[in-house]
From TrEMBL:
Name of this chain's protein: Transmembrane protein
Domain of life of the native organism: Eukaryota
Keywords (A to Z) from UniProt: Membrane, Transmembrane, Transmembrane helix
Source species taxonomy: Eukaryota, Viridiplantae, Streptophyta, Embryophyta, Tracheophyta
Transmembrane regions: 56-79, 85-103
Length: 126
């Protein structure tokens, strides 16, 4: 069981490595020489055109990118699915804390009003 899982993970990592190598080779452009107007180094160098990708290679590239995005999406979904009970629990705890605080404030205001000493009558100024 463990060997099968490890073999499967090795295949996945190999596929990701190959996919990233293809993408980087496609995105990599040849370095362009910098030409300064006051500095000529000799005859111009003839540049070779960049290699073209075949339609089958391009389709394989798009297929690999879509598979990688699907795998990343499923991993993200799994992480969210695992963390959702924790988030809901934290929300419930905060709601209970808010309710307890509100009841405490109401009780304190009622008790302080009842136990407060009556105000003395105003003094008459002659």
């Amino acid at each position: 069981m463990m060997r099968r899982r490890q073999h499967h993970e090795d295949e996945q990592s190999k596929a990701f490595y190959e996919l990233s190598a293809i993408v980087l080779n496609l995105l990599r452009s040849p370095p362009t020489p910098l030409n300064f107007s006051d500095h000529q180094t000799g005859p111009p160098i003839r540049r070779l055109p960049p290699p073209q990708i075949s339609p089958a290679g391009f389709a394989s590239l798009l297929l690999g990118i879509s598979v990688a995005l699907m795998l990343c999406g499923s991993v993200t979904f799994f992480i969210g699915f695992v963390l959702m009970p924790w988030v809901l629990g934290l929300i419930m705890i905060l709601y209970v804390a808010g309710i307890v605080t509100t009841i405490s404030d109401l009780g304190r205001s009622i008790l302080c009003y009842v136990t407060a000493a009556p105000e003395p009558p105003p003094k008459d100024i002659p």
